Amino acid sequence: MTTQATPVRTGPATSVPEPVVHEHITDALKAPVLLRLTDNIVLARFETMKVYAALGAVRTLLERGTVSPGQTLVDSSSGIYALALAMACHRYGLRCHIVASTTVDTTMRAQLEILGATVDQMPPSRNLRLDQERRVRRVRQLIADRPGMHWMRQYHDAVHYTGYREFADLVDGALPGVPLTVVGAVGTGASTGGLVQPLRGRGRPVTLAGVQPFGSVTFGSEEFSDPEAIIAGIGSSIPFDNVRHNLYDTVHWLDFRHAMAGAVALLREHAVFAGLSTGAAYLAAVWEAAHHPERTHLVVGADTGHRYAERVFARHREALDPRTLEPRRITALDDLAMPWSVMEWKRRPHAVRPAAEPVPAPLPAPAPEDRTP
Known about the structure:
With 373 residues, the protein is α/β, with parallel strands linked by helices. It is 30% helix and 17% strand. The chain has nine helices and twelve strands. The strands form two sheets. It has an eight-stranded mixed sheet with strand order 1-2-10-7-8-9-12-11, with helices on both faces. A four-stranded parallel sheet has the order 5-4-3-6, sandwiched between helices.
């Protein structure tokens, strides 16, 4: 893999943006920085991408009368949605309860608690699939015990698509009139789907390349196991209704080592400190851009690299050289193989094979402060 860096520009800026004083921190955080990495690769680098999803969802639910100020919103999260939802609740005067993945670190948990959220965190798990299923069971238990709570259902409720229309407006204005390929982690489906649907609705020729980890049921790799996988939030052990398979033109499956290579390369080559899902998307985008040089490739960078500092960036000397990495091209899921495969998905629907039900693990008892009415 090679990249052609855009020449460094020196001299005075041609224009100075209008200064803006925001009313709430979410207004400043929701929009990404757009950075041209090469002639045909642009990065949309977010601090916390899911602020768009959480703000749009909460605002819409309030407008519909589905929720009201003072009510408690609850959801499961591996990290960035939890923070986004807590900030949206802070803004709109709602209470927040997070059932957090075992991957949520001390820094993230402290922010959530200071923002007023109550947090249930899952104990360490032998794999992320068990962690995710524990979280969903815990949310169901909470809803049954406290009917006044509203379950946000970020994995299933299409209301999370609404906030990304603003992202589509931003991309449309910044990259007008060019054939566009969006490359991003599939995750819940709302970020990539919520971006490309409005763009395609305006008649733009937009293709979508989704990025998946091995072990996710979303695009049929659940039979694989990546023992190092900590790419929280880009795959799933359960089917997500918000993933609309017929929006995707191409799918890339990458293991942890390849995502790490992409994340380290992004920092080394472009001084961008971003998370593992962004690293995986960057690696896929460089390959896509080399094979489709006529298109502009927009990489969706969901968050910063802070929560991966020790387990990824401190190990940067172990990172694979991205110039030596190539995917295996496949035409059917039966040919899927680690560590990196790519397939022309061709916007087909996909029936996810049901995963085997794991042995249920005991649920942790709620903490005393977790008894929000």
